[in-house]
Amino acid sequence: MNTSDFRSLHAQYDPDNAEREREPSVDPNAFVATLHRIGTGAAADGQPWPERHQLPGRCLQLADADCALAGLRVVAELMLAAERTRQNGSPEEYLGDRVMEGLTLACVALCAQASACLQVQG
User: Fold this and answer.
1) pLDDT digit string (tens) for the chain, length 122 residues
2) Do 67 and 118 form a contact (C-beta atoms < 8 A)?
3) What CA–CA distance (Å, rounded) separates 5 from 48?
4) In Å, how far are 9, 16, 95, 113, 114 from 71, measured between CA atoms?
C-alpha cells in the first residue's frame, strides 16, 4: 500500500518543535492549575464534585450544572439591579433594552446548559 502525499489531519507530536514543559505552579489559584481543576470536574466553588459515589462522567455533568447555575444567579442579579435602576434611577443609568435582552438570552442559555447537564443519560 502506498503512503499518502497528504499530511495527516490528526495532530502529531513533534519533540523538536515542542515547547518546554513548565514546572507546575505551587499556587493552586494559578491559571493553569485552575484549568486542570475545571477539566477534572471542579464545581462552581472550584472544588471537585463532593459526591464520590457518582461515576466520574456524572461528576463532571453535575459540576458543569453547578457552574451554569452559579452563572445564572449572577446574570439574574444583574437583571434585577438593571430593572430596579430602570424603575427608580435616572434614565441615563438604565442599561437599555438591548442589554436587557442580552441578559435574558444569557439566562435562557444558562438554564438550558444546566438542564442538559442534569438529564440522565439512558
Assistant:
1) 555 565 555 555 555 655 555 565 567 667 777 767 766 767 777 777 778 788 888 888 888 899 999 999 999 999 999 989 889 888 888 899 999 999 999 999 999 999 998 887 65
2) no
3) 46
4) 36, 42, 19, 11, 10
Q: What is the DSSP letter of 14?
A: -
Q: What is the DSSP letter of 75?
A: H
Query: What does residue 42 show for φ and ψ, rounded to 5 degrees?
Result: -75, 135
Beta bridge mates, 48 = 42
pTM above 0.85, yes or no: no
Q: Would you state the cell numbers that stand for residue 80, as one nine-digit string?
A: 434585577
Provide the residue count of the chain: 122
Quick check: 48 and 93 in contact, CB under 8 A? no
SS3 content of the chain, % helix, strand, coil (to 5): 55, 0, 45
Residue 72 contacts by C-beta under 8 Å, 6 or more apart in sequence?
Answer: 107, 110, 111, 114
Query: Are 117 and 61 spatial neighbours (Cβ–Cβ below 8 Å)?
Result: yes
